[in-house]
Amino acid sequence: xxxxxxxxxxxPLKVADxxxxxxxxxxxxxxxxxxxxxxxxxxKLMKHDKGLQTLKEISLSNGEKVYxxxxxxxxxxxxxxxxxxxxxxxxDERIKLMAAEIVPxxxxxxxxxxxxxxEQKNVGLQQASDLLYNYKFExxxxxxxxxxxxxxxxxxxxxFFFAVLDGSLxxxxxxxxxxxxxxxxxxxxxxxxNAGNVFISYVAxxxxxxxxxxxxxxxxxxxxxxxxxxxxxxxxxxxxNSTDIQVAGTYKEGKxxxxxxxxxxxxxASFTMSNPVMTAFPATLVEQFDNDGxxxxxxxxxxxxxxxxxxxxxxxxxxxxxxxxxxxELGVRTSFxxxxxxxNVHFKNKGVAFSRIPKxxxxxxxxxxxxxxxxxxxGGLVIFTTTMRTTYGRTLPPPPTVPTTTRMLCWWPLxxxxxxx
Length: 421
Description:
Radius of gyration: 22 Å
Distance between the termini: 38 Å
Largest sheet: 6 strands, antiparallel
Shape: globular
Helix content: under 10%
Number of helices: 2
Oligomer: single chain
């Protein structure tokens, strides 16, 4: 899905032997009369067989445009298909985040649960455009799935809303948090532990923070400090074998380039953090990405270009970070967006392993999302990606026989990891 019409669910959603998808038609009114509440659309649910042939489809609410202003999503909750959708109330200018189980036989919805009530003013065109681009919704379970966290943030102010849910999506507690001293924050990740404690990482004014909220009411907001370096991104993930929270991210030693990764733990009771373990990118990795156009080996500007990563908790409890390079290049009369190589960082018990998937640089101004998908598997991590055919043979061993096409969907195991000392 595109970055501007973002979709946070699975496409399609697989539950048992069936696949589910949805269709939401957006026809918005722009101009001086535009308001957020006018972003409404109908929803059509569809069920497919394993060959993705449509078995049944239904228009919810008789096809009326009652849903919005954000796109609905499909998610697997306790091995059942669920629809998460939004309803805007003009009276109190609040957006309700709803969840309803889908009945597989006829695609009807069971009685919905209200997860969050989000205060959001009925803003005009410019603010609404920023909001539709920057908002973030997360639904994540605790390790034992006894607790779930539903989180929503606008990305255009200093507030976020969350609810801790039980295994039936019943609300155990809710929160509307405003971070004082910050004008605007971007949530990077969030997690909840088995006790219902909540941890949220975010970046504001180029500083990385972690907000912690315990089930008994204790709260703390703290900056991630790395000595002379500055954290660029920070992520929080639960531990499978302890009550500590895993913290990982990237850092800069100057203003422009990312020079390494760090990891530490956060005590879920006291909210204290251990000393960070910082690992610089290996010179061989920087040189390879420099050859690809995504790094610089000059001393005054050494490191990788900025890259936004996604955190993944593997089946063995270790953490991976994955991302695709993308940046805007300025020309004499215009600018354009290019995308290319993929970086993978694996935090293991002793040390860090870095991997690179080379990709041909392509124009990304009109692409839909990133050109990869990272999937957690029983044996580790599998990355599916698209690339230009010319990438083969130049940076990898001779490829297997493939159809004569200019683009293809392909699968590569990660190259031999380079382990930092």
